Amino acid sequence: MSVITSIFQAIFQALTWVFPVSESGHSAIFHDLSGRFTNACSQLTGVIHIGIAVGIFIAFFKLFAGLFKSFFAGWNDLFHKRLDLKNLSSQRKFMFMTIFSFVFFLFYLIPAGKYGNVFEMFHRTSYNGNLLGEGICFALTGALVIALSTVANKSTKRLPELLQAGIIGLVAFLALPFAGCSFTFGIFAAAILLGMSEKYALRYAAVLSVPVLITAGIIELCTAVTKVGVFSAILGLIIAAAVSFFAVKLFIFVLKNKALKYFAYYDIAVGLIILIIGIFEIVVKH
After folding, report:
1. What does the pLDDT look like over 269-286, one tens digit per residue?
2. What is the C-alpha to C-alpha distance for residues 52 and 17, in angstroms, rounded to an integer?
3. Which DSSP string corresponds to 111-152?
């Protein structure tokens, strides 16, 4: 795997993961148009996913440090029978909500015959030989961005925290394996639509993204078909961490300046183009 590939792939994956433009969707488009979509991944992809997790972790270091402290303090309170679930601090409540959102991801571990588990089944069968599904997902993501701009910062009746966490977890569960959907933005959008602030929603997306990226990266490293050299791997990891860190800061800037709609235009445009390509691919094959 060349150094140039590591550089460009790290930049590409980091930007498309953080922003609402779907990393998996762009990957599907690239492999489809290049005629070499095999559903197999490379070790470089896994390394870069871990690098993106590192960058996001650094960008939200104070948040993660506080959650780790709260997590171990919670176990200490439970051990000494001091845990009061009725009077939780905002930080501890946030921690419990994000943990509950991960419950849905346990379904991915269910055995699924020759695929190994449910996640691998979704991942390997998500590409069906054309870009029709990816085009629809891109267009829907763009429509969601536009819809979000009409409700952001408006008062919404809040649902119980446990129900909110369940809904966000379900959205994340559904967005992860399907190309064209944005995992990070799906979480962010769901949180906003449930009445959370942009700051709270962004933190929620970050907390769910980091363990998912690390887990995906480890799995990809273990199951990859294409190997990567040590230098290329280290370079890809460092660049992915740096780009994702600055991408988070840029995303916050975009939110403050109400410029998220420009990503919607991009998603809808790309979605319509590859939707047409997908229809054309179906017609040609039949």
Report:
1. 999 998 888 888 888 776
2. 8
3. B-GGGSBHHHHHHHHS--SSSHHHHHHHHHHHHHHHHHHHHT
79-103 pLDDT, tens per residue?
656 665 566 677 888 888 999 998 8
Lookup: tokens for 203: 């933190």
Residue 134 φ then ψ, to 5°: -65, -40
Instruction: Quickly tell me which residue has 């408006």 as its tokens.
Output: 154
**What's this model's pTM, rounded to 2 decimal places?**
0.89
Residue recorded with tokens 């979480």:
187
Distance CA 244, CA 26 (A): 17
